[in-house]
Amino acid sequence: MDVTLRPFEDDDLPRLRRWLAADHVRPWFEQPEDWMAEVEGRHGEYAWISHFVIEADGDPAGFCQLYPFSASGEDWNGALPVEGTYSLDYLLGEPTLLRRGIARAALSQLIGLIAAEPDAERIIVQPDRENVASRGLLRALGFAYDEADDLFAMDV
């Protein structure tokens, strides 16, 4: 299956809203209105986040984003430095496309985009403890789990 990332567009808003409400996504993406506000503000207040649609064989399959952690105002980085740190989020919205390698291919591309950023030194991700699939995927892609800080990290 050919997996690509393309920039998020206004036409994708209804689809993302539907994905965020899906039974297999909702437990991991709480406050869907916050996620929608971020993508709706991607040309203004949230321009520091790069939003993408994951496509599988040319059809929308999911959503992902990357951002410099220092711009987020978040504080779950543990002992890792904020500068040079990026983070990402992703979801596969179409349930028929789960467990087909699409998320792995999309995250590999997202990691490549982050690694190309001149200031990128590491990526951190903090999936929910019960999100076994996401945690397993991160490990498979080379992220190391930092138990003390309860996050996954990868040097780039």
UniProtKB/TrEMBL annotation:
Pfam families: Acetyltransf_8. It is an enzyme of class 2 (transferase). One of its GO terms (cellular component) is ribosome. Its EC number is 2.3.1.82. Keywords: Acyltransferase, Antibiotic resistance, Ribonucleoprotein, Ribosomal protein, Transferase. GO terms for molecular function: aminoglycoside 6'-N-acetyltransferase activity. This is Acetyltransferases, including N-acetylases of ribosomal proteins. It comes from Gordonibacter pamelaeae 7-10-1-b.
